[in-house]
Specification:
Chain lengths: 259, 261
């Protein structure tokens, strides 16, 4: 019996992190696809797993019962510590600190700006086509007030000009700093492939398509070399094959441009 | 290797890291700097500054090793624990470790921005507003992060949104309630065993007792736990590094309020 069940959306951003970590470790898992655009994450059957209604979530059945885990980066750390397989954290303590620092930088500073832009140009327009009453009811079911606000903004296109400008500033700065980092080391934060690479790859793989003015072979050669190195990993290819939307196809287009 | 820990008064992030260092037993020299004078942004000998330039935590401590500036109190506490070969600040069981990380993230993402805002309004804002214009311009010019500079400026200009204050009060109340719930089964420490979770929560919550007493009225277990943490030798030695009478009333601009969901 498979001990691990992962509840996830596309192999992208937060959902992609534990998918890729499990693949790298060679941990078999049951995949439970949650269609974010259909608000599956706010339906009672999923809220029974994660009452906060955020994706991804993971359950792990063991001798002490079923463990439920949430928050993508923390799930990855659990996966790395709980299962055999290649160690996805460097051995050196300062390298480990650096890996954690970059993950926090992505999760709490840069990532939200990527999200705001992504939601304004992709998620919002996708769900906006739906019946307004159905949408309003779906939003009312969201447990976390902050997420209700975020969804309303995305659906109504209510991001202010200053909010979007700040997100664009952070994205430009974050890309520039990541380029510098990958000029110092082969991987993010250390000389070996780690959870930081998985974390940041999942939010930056599409940069050559989404931010061509900021990220390209000419402008960010270190990032492009790193994207190629990560993309060529077998675990990445197998993870991307699990996608159900055209995100994976978009990724192939990216690779055609940089490989 | 030449490691130096630059820190402010033992409160908030500085208290967490000083106490973790004491618990680890590592011999790393500590240098107190005046955070409200912008000293953190004028450190010398830093070849790798990104964690200082773009730190999430605001005016927290900076560990400099081999020219690299290292920041973020939870990760510095983990670093000390791991460099010492495991001094007991992190659970060995992966699930208990996940639980601790989740707790710490709740504290650093939700409580610490709220506590920093309320603490600065209560004790630092007057001093920041009184900095002569030329000095303040020089101070803010040395802050690399645009968003941290904006938090300095907002305090200086008294441009704090009332809704943010109300939200911060609510977040302090929620943090105390979360502690009360966690301690309800009679446990001594938040995660069962003493851990980084106790240090980081104490660092941000202890200073809220005089500022937001309402949060603690229905939280006797939390008040007793705060007293137990205060009596831990590592916390006692961290607080002994204070250069003022009431370090828990010492605040500097902290993390930003979550700007997106």
């Amino acid at each position: 019996m498979t001990e691990v069940t992962l509840y996830h959306w596309e192999p992208n951003a937060n959902s992609g992190k534990p998918m890729l970590a499990l693949m790298e470790k060679g941990v078999p898992f049951a995949s439970h696809y949650i269609d974010m655009l259909q608000f599956d994450q706010h339906k009672p059957e999923y809220l029974a797993i994660n009452p906060q209604g955020t994706i991804p979530a993971m359950t792990h059945q063991g001798p002490l019962g079923t463990r439920v885990l949430t928050e993508s980066t923390a799930i990855m750390e659990y996966v790395n510590a709980a299962f055999p397989g290649p160690d996805l954290m460097p051995a050196d303590a300062q390298d480990r600190w650096r890996v954690r620092w970059w993950m926090k930088f992505m999760d709490q500073w840069l990532g939200p700006s990527f999200s705001m832009i992504g939601w304004s140009v992709f998620v919002g327009p996708m769900v906006r086509k739906r019946d307004p009453e159905e949408l309003a009811a779906a939003i009312d079911r969201i447990p976390l007030p902050e997420r209700r606000i975020a969804w309303r903004k995305a659906i109504n296109g209510d991001f202010s000009a200053s909010e979007m400008a700040e997100s664009r500033r952070r994205v430009a700065l974050g890309i520039a700093r990541l380029e510098e980092e990958l000029g110092k080391r082969d991987y993010v934060g250390s000389a070996s492939y780690s959870l930081a690479d998985i974390n940041i790859f999942n939010s930056t793989y599409s940069l050559p398509l989404s931010q061509p003015d900021l990220a390209s072979k000419d402008k960010t050669p270190n990032i492009m070399r790193w994207l190629k190195r990560v993309y060529e990993r077998d675990a990445v290819k197998r993870t991307w094959a699990m996608g159900k939307t055209d995100l994976a196809a978009r990724y192939s287009l990216v690779m055609e441009g940089i490989v | 290797m030449g490691a130096v820990l630059y820190h402010g008064e033992p409160n908030g992030a500085s208290l967490t890291v000083l106490a973790a260092l004491a618990e680890s037993g590592l011999d790393i020299p500590c240098v107190r700097i005046d955070l409200l004078a912008g000293a953190r942004h004028n450190l010398t000998g830093i070849a790798e500054p990104i964690a200082l330039d773009l730190g999430i935590e605001g005016e927290g401590p900076v560990l400099v090793i081999g020219g690299e500036a290292m920041t973020e109190s939870v990760f510095l506490a983990q670093y000390f624990d791991e460099l010492a070969g495991g001094c007991g600040l992190q659970p060995a069981d992966p699930y208990a470790h996940w639980d601790m990380l989740m707790w710490c993230r709740q504290i650093t993402e939700r409580l610490s921005p709220a506590a920093a805002l309320l603490g600065n309004l209560a004790s630092s804002q007057q001093g920041i507003a009184a900095i002569p214009a030329d000095d303040f311009a020089a101070l803010t010019a040395s802050v690399v992060s645009d968003d941290l500079r904006a938090r300095w400026q907002a305090l200086h200009d008294d441009a704090i949104d009332a809704a943010q204050v109300a939200d911060s009060h609510a977040k302090v109340d929620q943090a105390a309630a979360r502690c009360e719930g966690k301690l309800a089964d009679g446990r001594e420490w938040l995660m069962g065993e003493f851990s980084i979770a106790d240090l980081v929560t104490y660092g941000w919550l202890a200073g809220m007792e005089p500022i937001r007493p309402q949060a603690f009225v229905a939280a006797p277990l939390t008040c007793a736990w705060l007293a137990r943490v205060a009596a831990r030798p590592c916390v006692v030695s961290a607080l002994a590094l204070a250069n003022c009478a009431e370090p828990l009333r010492s605040w500097a601009p902290g993390p930003e309020i979550n700007r997106w969901g």
